[in-house]
């Protein structure tokens, strides 16, 4: 898995590509840990599969960031990923947008990195 | 034109209070889900895209509506959170909402329209803003672009009204109104060869049974001898009306068995629950021969799984018997082994059993070996063999009233000796454990469970080995 990264309006935007599974989850976990209390948007438009390991990385990353007063918002999730989030009720933990720009704009200015 | 329906779970609290096991989004009026009426109306308005944004589970809705192909519309789904207001829901769906006139429906209501009318021109020429409102919802037109066409010259808008839905009584009265008065305004399910009689597929009606219009009968219904159905009866799908029963001015929800000689007049029944819509009171019948829930048979699969888990538990019981006897004796003497009992829910129907809990202090040589062999769970192996627990499943919930509500709403509750979260090594808060438990429960098979079980045991062994190493360092 490859994770593209950019900073837009002082928000980290990560764009993982491919499958988010046991093999790729550690990489996502590592990237999210590097956020260091900032705000992040995960653009999932290129992720077509997520299993429990990917979910674990996502939930753990969100917990850590929120403990440090940051947050993660998701954007452009595919139906397969949405079903996993819904099935496990992890969708209650995340704000999910259909547009990364809207996700970025949703962060209040004082919460940016 | 596009349509966005924003609907939240709290608008269905009144329905969940009475029927917690039924999906609110599939609540129906005359055997047609409320959602389908809105979909039909969106199509009459010229919408080609319909999005449902909700904080409720969508799996059952998706199973019924899919991608909207049956209606010739593109239906998509978007999760929102229960704290989101309309502005946030619009922002979360900003890509969908952009570039087209948007019909926004918000809340829980019934929309009165007429299938004979064309709402397209009216919707295209109406100025953006609130169109209709009621106590529990509203319809508005959201459009960033100015009107391209002039308002229609005749100035008479097609019929359109909202009815609030705040109670089971209102839902009942609406069903009776649609069945008795407004049926021609909507596309209703079933064959309609005779006036005011709608009959679904695979319906068996005994020769001596009587059907009195207006009546609506869903798919896969059996009406046995000398039963009288109607006038004013809405019978859902997969319902059995047994012999000599009479159903007048009543609604029978899906998957309900109505026993012999039962007379239902001005009632709403679903499963074992019987509601008086006038008084808004509900009783739950304990006698399954009077009124009960019809469940699809999954007995074969469940039995096989239970057998598989039981056999594995028996194997562990034999293998660990000697270490358990020896180490529990030693640890008890050392004061590192304490037992207590507490009641736990063991299935979604609300059955509870008392389970033994062992508190094991893993310090010392014997304690570490006992912990690595998970001997604190040994007393529960008997419960697995008896079928009360799975070998691996969801987190066990203590038998409290708060947890009862959780398991009733969650048909997937299957407590295990070990939880899937332990296999995945999720030493995290309870809600996060439930996330991983739900994931695995949805994917589980007997072999899958066996693999996860091996993972749990290896994890236990690894934890203790790591602990030993860290202590020796």
Structure write-up:
The complex is a heterodimer of chains A (113) and B (473). Chain A has 113 residues and is of the alpha/beta class. Chain A contains four helices and six strands, in the order E-E-H-E-E-H-E-H-E-H. In chain A, strands 1, 2, 3, 4, 5 and 6 form a six-stranded mixed beta sheet that branches. Chain B has 14 helices and 31 strands. The termini of chain B are far apart. The model of chain B has no long low-confidence stretch (mean pLDDT 89). The chains are: A alpha/beta (113), B alpha/beta (473).
Radius of gyration of chain A equals 13 Å
DSSP strand count of chain A: 6
Strand order of the largest sheet of chain B: 11-12-15-18-21-24-25-26
Distance between the termini of chain A: 26 Å
User: For the report, how would you describe the main beta sheet of chain A?
Assistant: 6 strands, mixed
How many distinct helices of chain A? 4
**How large is the count of helical segments of chain B?**
14
Q: Give the overall shape of chain A, derived from the CA principal axes.
A: globular
Protein structure class of chain B: alpha/beta
Average pLDDT of chain B works out at 89
Q: Which term fits the overall shape of chain B?
A: globular
Strand content of chain A: 25-35%
Count of the domains of chain A: 1
Secondary structure: helix percent of chain A: 25-40%
CATH-assigned fold name of chain A: Transcription Regulator spoIIAA
Give the domain tally of chain B: 3
Quick one: CATH superfamily of chain A? Answer: STAS domain
Secondary structure: number of strands of chain B: 31
Helicity of chain B, as a percent range: 25-40%
Tell me what the CATH architecture of chain A is. Answer: 2-Layer Sandwich
């Amino acid at each position: 898995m490859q994770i593209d990264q950019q900073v837009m309006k002082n928000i980290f935007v990560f764009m993982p590509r491919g499958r988010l599974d046991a093999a790729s989850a550690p990489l996502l976990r590592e990237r999210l840990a590097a956020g260091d209390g900032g705000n992040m948007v995960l653009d999932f438009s290129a992720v077509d599969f997520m299993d429990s390991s990917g979910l674990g990385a996502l939930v753990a990353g969100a917990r850590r960031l929120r403990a440090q007063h940051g947050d993660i918002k998701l954007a452009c999730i595919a139906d397969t990923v949405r079903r996993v989030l819904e099935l496990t009720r992890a969708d209650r933990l995340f704000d999910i947008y259909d547009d990364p720009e809207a996700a970025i704009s949703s962060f209040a200015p004082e919460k940016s990195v | 034109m596009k349509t966005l329906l924003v609907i939240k779970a709290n608008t269905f609290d009144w329905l969940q209070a009475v029927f917690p096991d039924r999906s609110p989004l599939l609540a129906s009026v005359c055997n047609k889900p409320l959602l389908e009426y809105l979909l039909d109306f969106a199509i009459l308005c010229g919408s080609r895209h319909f999005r449902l944004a909700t904080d409720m589970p969508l799996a059952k809705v998706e199973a019924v509506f899919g991608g909207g192909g049956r209606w010739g519309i593109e239906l998509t789904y978007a999760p929102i959170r229960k704290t989101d207001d309309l502005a946030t829901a619009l922002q979360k769906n900003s890509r969908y909402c952009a570039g087209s006139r948007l019909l926004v429906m918000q809340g829980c209501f019934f929309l009165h329209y007429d299938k004979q009318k064309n709402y397209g021109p009216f919707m295209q020429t109406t100025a953006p803003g609130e169109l209709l409102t009621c106590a529990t919802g509203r319809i508005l037109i959201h459009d960033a672009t100015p009107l391209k066409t002039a308002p229609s010259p005749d100035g008479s808008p097609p019929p359109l009204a909202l009815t609030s839905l705040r109670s089971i009584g209102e839902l009942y009265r609406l069903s009776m109104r649609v069945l008795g008065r407004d049926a021609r305004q909507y596309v209703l399910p079933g064959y309609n060869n005779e006036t005011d009689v709608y009959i679904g597929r695979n319906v068996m009606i005994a020769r001596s049974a009587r059907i009195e219009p207006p009546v609506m009968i869903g798919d896969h219904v059996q009406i046995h001898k000398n039963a009288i159905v109607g006038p004013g009866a809405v019978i859902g799908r997969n319902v059995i009306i047994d012999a000599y029963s009479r159903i007048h001015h009543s609604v029978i929800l899906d998957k309900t068995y109505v026993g012999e000689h039962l007379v239902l007049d001005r009632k709403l029944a679903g499963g074992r629950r019987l509601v008086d819509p006038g008084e808004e009171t509900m009783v739950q019948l304990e006698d399954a021969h009077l009124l009960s829930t019809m469940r699809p048979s999954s007995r074969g699969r469940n039995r096989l799984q239970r057998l598989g888990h039981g056999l594995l538990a028996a194997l562990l019981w034999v293998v660990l018997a000697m270490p358990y006897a020896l180490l529990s004796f030693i640890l008890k003497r050392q004061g590192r082994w304490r037992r207590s009992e507490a009641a736990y829910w063991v299935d979604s129907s609300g059955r509870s059993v008392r389970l033994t809990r062992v508190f094991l202090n893993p310090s010392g040589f014997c304690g570490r070996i006992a912990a690595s062999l998970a001997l604190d769970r040994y007393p529960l192996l008997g419960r697995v063999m008896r079928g009360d627990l799975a070998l691996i499943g969801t987190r066990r919930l203590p038998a409290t009233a708060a947890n009862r509500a959780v398991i009733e709403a969650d048909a997937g509750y299957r407590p295990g000796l070990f939880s899937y979260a332990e296999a995945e090594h999720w030493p995290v808060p309870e809600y996060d454990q439930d996330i991983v438990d739900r994931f695995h429960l949805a994917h589980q098979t007997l072999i899958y469970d066996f693999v996860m079980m091996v993972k749990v045991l290896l994890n236990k062994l690894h934890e203790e080995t790591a602990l030993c190493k860290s202590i020796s360092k």
